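ok so for the tutorial part 2 we go from a plain amino acid sequence to predicted structure tokens. step 1 is just haveing the sequence, like this:
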Amino acid sequence: MHKQIPDDLKGDVNFDSMQNALSQLLEQISKRDQKIAWINAENSAVLRVSAEKERAVLAEKEDILLRVRIQLAEREALLNEIVTSRAWKIIVLFRRVRVFLIPPNSRRALVIRQGLNIIFLPFRIIKRK
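step 2 — the prediction. this is what the tokens look like for a chain of 129 residues:
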């Protein structure tokens, strides 16, 4: 590694100290490069773990969403079954007749409600005891 130093430069510069300084700088650069490589490896490992966690969370949320969609489909099917049944149609008919004969918040509704309260009051008292 030692090269011949020209005679005209020998007196002006201390080449040994420059060579030592250069080797120290190269060593520092090497250490810095190792640290950078280590930090990059650590960051990529952290990013890999983070990405895996995100994928796991996403998969869990997709699973929950699928279960909720299945429940929604089941409930919609049940609701459709109820609404299309004969019993539902009969109940809706009775409700329409009641609303026609006794409109909500009318005097007729108030009188009927008070009458029913008087009729069922003894049963409520018995139930409490």
